[in-house]
Design brief:
Elements: H1 8-24, E1 33-34, E2 47-48, H2 52-63, H3 65-78, H4 82-109, H5 116-123, H6 130-167, H7 175-195, H8 200-225, H9 231-236, H10 248-255, H11 257-262, H12 279-308, H13 312-317, H14 322-331, H15 334-368, H16 375-378, H17 389-408, H18 410-417, H19 419-440, H20 456-473, H21 490-512
Antiparallel strand pairs: 1-2
């Protein structure tokens, strides 16, 4: 049976009433507070137990930005060189901060687990079929995050394989090795989410502390032990032609993709909104602080890395993990190199726990709003564990199945996980665009504790321009000539997913989907 249509005027009146109430309510940080059940299929509420420090630490480990740069900087050296990493990190941090601040305006009024898909439906003009935008946005966001969820265990498995290969040169990595390692890093966070949910706060705080301590240990080690590259190399060196692209402008833009990936996914914090205390204040603040702090750490790490990585050609032609070469050249010791690499793996592993928690909540929220088939089943919240167990199981099974693709074709697997960053950037555009249209038309837009005020429109516009710019470049192949192995499949995979979502909408989705709040 079709649910009642969304009434934007009624929601606006409700938001005007609820925002001041949310702003004036002081919550007890020492008490876990139940969230009123908003969905028909959600049997039980989640529980609010996450304060500001844990939610910031959650975002820091979920992104693991300086760690992400450490294992992916080679791609930017091929396209653009040091200047793409150094100046690119500044550009993407500013752009991601603008996007996070813009989403924060909506999160402060409606701190929803579903985030972008709820806001796309609720801010879209009635003439543009808000239900359609919400439904398509929901599928887009869920698929993007499931792809990201598969990417994290894959990256962890790749790092372990690289470390094994470094210690045992005779080791020959096989695709099934990677698949088995992926499964390990799928089972571990699922087990933790099932049986140690209330320890998530302690785990995230620990991960946040490790994130800083390991950063300092790595930077100090490289800075003290390694001879310096010249200032000209770090700040002025541009690279083109190595990847097949000869235009310096193109290579610079392609070199931004690695820094952009390092600070993307900040909206993962919002998926924990129903478990965050005083979410109208803390969810937006946690999201923006995540981008700013991680952006600063990643920028500082890039500067250190560019000064200490040694010869450019050596870094480009070294092992599958060039950071191992950098560490070994710095320390001259295999155990010390293993220790430095373990710093990255430990924080990334905690980030693995974070992303499974985040994506399972997003999937649960979309099921609660009847966006998924078998919505009642996937919207179930366990009465004792207080987590969406079926949604978590769905995410884990899908990631495990995606890992099987790697057995047949690594190209096909990369095609799937390439969906993540592109889809995330696309998911930011509709809700911010609809919010901006309302502002430019002079319509009343409800505001919460996080309010950009007179700077809102310029920040919204800058964030949108940055997202559109990244969407243009993310589907580009990073190497020429384009072959089956160097093709960037992000755009066609995204298009195929959206066609399936459209098919779902025109058949049963439009009849079952309903935003509740």
């Amino acid at each position: 049976m079709a649910g009642p249509k969304f009434d934007s005027k009624e929601w606006q009146r409700t938001s005007q009433r609820s925002a001041p109430e949310q702003e004036s309510s002081d919550v007890d940080d020492n008490a876990a507070q139940p969230v009123p059940s908003a969905g028909r299929a959600s049997d039980r509420p989640l529980e609010r137990y996450i304060a500001l420090k844990p939610i910031v630490a959650f975002g820091l480990t979920l992104q693991s930005s300086w760690e992400a740069i450490a294992i992916s900087f080679q791609s930017s050296l091929l396209n653009g060189g040091p200047i793409s990493l150094v100046y690119g990190m500044l550009i993407v941090t500013l752009g991601s901060t603008a996007l996070a601040a813009s989403l924060g305006e909506m999160a402060s009024v409606d701190p929803a687990v579903g985030a972008q898909y709820r806001w796309a439906a609720r801010y879209a003009p009635r003439s543009m079929k808000p239900q359609f935008w919400g439904f398509m946005q929901g599928w887009l966001t869920v698929l993007a995050w499931i792809a990201s969820c598969a990417l994290t265990p894959f990256t962890l498995g790749t790092m372990l394989q690289g470390l094994i290969e470094f210690n045992y040169p005779d080791y020959a990595p096989k695709p099934w090795h990677g698949t088995l390692l992926m499964w390990v890093f799928i089972v571990l966070p699922v087990f933790w989410n099932f049986f140690a949910r209330r320890l998530l706060v302690a785990l995230e705080i620990t991960g946040g502390i490790f994130h800083f301590i390991f950063f300092l240990a790595t930077v100090v080690t490289l800075g003290v032990l390694v001879p310096r590259n010249s200032n000209d190399f770090v700040w002025n060196t541009s690279v083109s032609g190595l990847s097949g692209w000869n235009n310096s402008g193109v290579t610079f833009c392609l070199g931004l993709l690695s820094p952009a990936f390092a600070v993307a996914g900040f909206d993962g914090v919002l998926h924990m909104s129903d478990e965050t205390k005083d979410a109208p204040r803390r969810a937006p603040r946690g999201m923006v602080l995540t981008v700013v702090i991680n952006g600063i750490l990643a920028f500082c790490f890039i500067i250190c890395l560019m000064y200490t990585m040694g010869d450019l050609d050596t870094a480009l032609t070294s092992t599958s993990l060039p950071i191992l070469t950098v560490f070994y050249n710095a320390t001259g010791s295999v155990p010390a190199t293993n220790a430095l690499m373990s710093f990255i793996i430990i924080v990334s592993c905690i980030g693995d726990f974070s992303i499974f928690a985040s994506v399972s909540r997003l999937t649960w929220a979309f099921a609660r709003d009847r966006g998924l088939p078998f919505s009642d089943f996937f919207a179930y919240v366990h009465p004792t564990l207080k987590i969406p167990v079926n949604a978590l199981g769905l995410v884990a099974v899908l990631c495990a199945l995606l890992a099987l693709i790697n057995l047949g074709s690594s190209v096909a697997f990369y095609a799937v996980i390439s969906l993540s960053t592109l889809s995330l950037f696309i998911s930011y555009i509709p809700p911010i665009t609809f919010l901006l249209i309302r502002k430019l038309q002079g319509q009343h837009t409800p505001s919460g504790p996080w309010n950009l005020g007179r700077f809102g429109i310029p920040i919204n516009v800058f964030g949108l321009c940055y997202a559109i710019f990244m969407i243009v470049w993310l589907p580009f192949p990073t190497q020429l000539p384009v072959t089956g192995r160097t093709m960037n499949y992000a755009a066609p995979v995204w298009g195929g997913c959206m066609l399936l979502a459209m098919l779902d909408y025109v058949t049963t989705g439009r009849k079952r989907f309903q935003i509740e709040g």
